[in-house]
Design goal:
binds 4'-deoxy-4'-aminopyridoxal-5'-phosphate, 12 strands, single chain, 39% helix, alpha/beta, 2 domains, Aspartate Aminotransferase, domain 2, 370 residues
């Protein structure tokens, strides 16, 4: 008797883990592999969470989230999208929770999900986990979005377009024109557009644009992990068409139940904490890397999040990263099988100290000149 479900064979464990395991063995590595802010949870957010804990606010919350937090979002969304009369909202267990519920609520076996390649590590396994078919659309070499390619990939089985800007792993920020085109395409073809906006705060060279501005039926997923360094507290937000939100909420009852209460009190406080200094700091780190590397590496267009996705100057990305780790204890993540169907680029995270970034640049220059 085989104990395991067939779905467990449809995807592999993340290649990111392999780099983390290697890194754990190194003394004093240069760690540019981390996908979370390197700053602490802001003190007022910590205080709100301590207060919640001290006052025994450790129970379940309503499935849709703490009333105060959900009300904040209802008001906020009314102001942001006054013409969207069908936008409903609830609190998810991280943005990952929102993504899981989205796919559970919309994708049947054999349904197709379109996303751009490179993509966030979770998208492909998540689609496959529930019997869906991933349809990656290449955006190499500059990660710009060719809407015609997305349009050409649509079939009668297309259920979702998963859109992510600012993007993990490329740091690419879609232009207003690109966002508008994707939003209108989904609307015209009557396909649910899912916008993963977890990095919306980190857009360095232009204003962040949501496809919801152009397509009121966009399902938006947001979160507090990257904005307030709350990755372990598991709080996210999903808002979009009531019909979809109601089904996601029903599924949350029988899966995640709710987001952790202490984290939700932290999230409520987080809205009053200005984060512009942290954003400016990451912009400065981005500039340091672009200045240090652009003569030696193709960097794409890193304008947001805290990542860039350079092309390996020789070999496959996996070979290059192996050498970076062996010779310089430099931890970065190869794209192949993790973020992409092709193994040509690697992800570099600048959610790191200036000292690590300086050491990283030095090592990368030596590796390029090999
Ligand atoms: N979407 C993207 C693009 C991400 O990079 C991440 C985290 N790395 C998530 C969603 C999930 O974030 P969380 O579940 O911590 O909110």
């Amino acid at each position: 008797m085989n104990w395991l479900a067939k779905r467990t064979t449809t995807f592999e464990s993340s290649g990111i883990r392999k780099v983390f395991d290697l890194g754990a063995k190194l003394k004093n590595p240069i760690n540019l592999s981390i996908g979370q802010p390197h700053f602490s949870v802001p003190q007022p957010v910590k205080d709100a969470m301590i207060d919640a804990l001290e006052n025994d606010k450790s129970s379940y919350t309503p499935t849709q989230g703490l009333a105060a937090l959900r009300e904040f979002w209802i008001d906020n969304l009314k102001k942001k999208y006054p013409s969207h009369d069908d936008r409903n909202v609830f609190i998810t267990s991280g943005t990952s929770g929102g993504l899981v519920l989205t796919v559970l609520a919309t994708v049947d076996a054999g349904d197709e999900v379109i996303f751009t390649d490179p993509y966030f590590v979770m998208y492909d396994p998540l689609v496959k986990m529930f019997g869906g078919v991933s349809v990656p659309i290449s955006t190499y070499p500059d990660f710009r979005i060719d809407v015609q390619k997305i349009s050409d990939a649509i079939t009668p089985r297309t259920k979702l377009i998963l859109f992510n800007s600012p993007a993990n792993p490329t740091g690419y920020v879609a232009s207003r024109k690109e966002v508008e085109a994707v939003a209108k395409l989904a609307q015209e073809r009557n396909i649910l557009l899912v916008s993963d906006e977890i990095y919306s705060m980190y857009s360095y060279d232009s204003e962040f644009v949501s496809p919801a501005e152009y397509n009121p039926a966009t399902l938006v997923l947001e979160g507090y992990s990257k904005t307030h360094a709350m990755t372990g507290w598991r709080v996210g937000v999903a808002h979009g068409p009531s019909e979809v939100i109601e089904q996601m909420l029903k599924l949350q009852q029988y899966t995640f139940v709710c987001a952790p209460q202490v984290g939700q009190w932290g999230a409520l406080e987080a809205h009053d904490v200005p984060m512009d200094k942290s954003v400016a700091d990451y912009k400065r780190k981005r500039d340091m890397l672009v200045e240090g590397l652009s003569n030696y590496y193709e960097l794409g267009n890193p304008s947001g999040a805290f990542y860039m996705y350079p092309k390996a100057p020789w070999g496959t990305a996996t070979e290059f990263v192996q050498k970076a780790i062996e010779d310089y204890s430099l931890l970065v993540i190869p794209g192949g099988g993790v973020f992409s169907t092709q193994d040509t680029h690697f992800r570099l995270s600048y959610a790191a100290s200036d000292a690590s970034i300086h050491r990283g640049i030095e090592a990368l220059l030596k590796l390029a000149k090999r």
